[in-house]
Amino acid sequence: MRAVQDQLIRRGDDRRGGRRRGIAAAVLAAALALTSACTDGDAGKPSGWQDGGGQPAAPKAAATIVEPKADAKDVPASTGITFTTKDAQETSVELKDSAGEAVEGKLAADGTSWLPAGALEYGETYTATVTATGDDGRPATATSTFTTMAKPGKQVRITSFLGDDQVVGVGMPLIVKFGRAIPKDYRDDVQRRMTVTSTPAQEGIWHWVSPTEIRYRPKEFWQAGSTVSYRVQAGGLPLGDGWYGRADLTVDIKIGAAVIMTVDNKTKRMTVTKNGSVVKTIPVSLGKKSTPSSSGTMVVIEKLRKTVFDTFDELGPEEGYRTKIDYAQRLTWGGEFIHAAPWSEGQQGSVNVSHGCVNVSMANGAWLFANTRIGDPITVKGTERKLQNGNGWTDWNMSWEEYVKGSALPYEPAGADPDASGEPAPSPTA
Fold first, then answer.
1. Is the peptide bond prior to 200 cis by the omega test (within 30 degrees of 0)?
2. Any idea what the Cα angle at residue 222 is, between residues 383 and 227, rounded to 5°?
3. What does residue 317 show for φ and ψ, rounded to 5 degrees?
4. What CA dihedral angle connects 157, 106, 113 and 242, to 10 degrees?
5. Of the listed 38, 207, 339, 355, which one is catalytic?
6. How many angstroms separate the Cα of 182 from the Cα of each of 12, 221, 243, 247?
7. Residue 54's CB: how many other CB atoms inside 10 A?
8. Are strands 81-86 and 113-116 parallel, antiparallel or unpaired?
9. Which of 90, 228, 353, 415 could be bridged to 133 by S-S, CB 3.0 to 4.6 A?
């Protein structure tokens, strides 16, 4: 009987244990069910979590270096870094030489290229890195390692008529010359490397006068007191037929007071204004009918306190003359000057007797010489002959519409969206 009771007790314990195990299993199953409701059905992992073996999300932005291509050799020392980006809110470019030293430079206005501050070293290896960052804050990078060409044997010299710290008149064009003709197909590349900065900002453009000379003028005369800096980054730049630019060129100048001369053949008077106010009216004698003065807008090209006019080779023994001249200011390559002419003082203000020059008295010649600068403009009106473009610095004798046609790059008015044509405005002042 005792044995039977012990057996019943053990069976009851087993049943109670079974109930406990059943309850535990039910709780575990419920927990698993709740967990599976918060997991990714494909991965079986909680969403929003990532274990150590997962991959980080890819950046939203992307960058690609177009030029120079990776491992490129014989790259011109003038090279910039051209690139494309996608979904980028910020873009930066870094260029380092083989020693890891950073090269100074800046992004172009169009945001698709970066230009070093100067020509790169010849025969050196560089690494460019473009970093684009999107609105997710994740940077994407592209790199390109390239080697510049050896120093070329055929180099073109580039010079400026003006020098640093020179003070010039409000009509002074910026004049840059090349040691050999620049083929038409290369002029746009050259012009992209030419920049002008003025304070205050003034709109302007480069104009090719010839294959060896390019000039720049603002849309209106320079503002009096402006500072102007112009730069030609042509060192190492391909210029056609195996020729390359010898070096970069930078010039800083200043603009003086706005001294403007106007000559009216009808009244035989010159009116001189300074910063908008009339400061002097001068009687003149212009060219006689057989040798008329040119009507148009010129600028003072050079100033000669004393010189000699010798025209025998030009006019022959009958018409030619050799005369000492005081206070001469050249206006044209053809020989038109403002100068003192004491021999014609009796005709000045009433009769034209010169060989094409603007004759003034000795006293007025001295005053003009003391109060004018190279680059000061003079406009002559009402004579029998029109000024021929190219006979002097005749940049202001052309309308703005005519002048912009001499640019190798399309012109965009100040304030225009550079993305409209795909090109930045050619050399605007800023």
1. yes
2. 150
3. -65, -25
4. 20
5. 339
6. 110, 28, 10, 15
7. 10
8. antiparallel
9. 90
Using the predicted structure, report yes or no on whether residue 300 has a pLDDT greater than 70: yes
Residue with tokens 């100074």: 104
**Of all helices (H) and strands (E), which one includes residue 125?**
strand 125-133
Helix (H, G, I), strand (E, B) or coil at 51: coil
Whether omega for the bond prior to residue 68 falls within 30 degrees of 0, making it cis, is yes
Q: 215-228 burial by CB neighbour count: b if 16+ within 10 A, else e?
A: bbbbeebbeeebeb
Cα–Cα dist 341/328, whole Å: 10
Per the CB < 8 A criterion, the answer to whether 353 and 344 are in contact is yes
Which of 38, 207, 355, 357 is the catalytic position?
357
d(CA 244, CA 50): 56
357 is catalytic: yes
Residues 231-264 pLDDT 10s: 999 999 999 999 999 999 999 999 999 999 999 9
Distance of CA 339 to the CA centre of its chain: 38
What is the model's pTM?
A: 0.80
Tokens 């790169």 sit at which residue? 120
Tokens for 264, please give them.
Answer: 């009216």
pLDDT digits (tens, 9 = 90+) for 129-146: 999 999 999 999 999 999
Q: How far apart are CA 292 and CA 111, in angstroms?
A: 54
**Which two tokens mark 206?**
């480069």
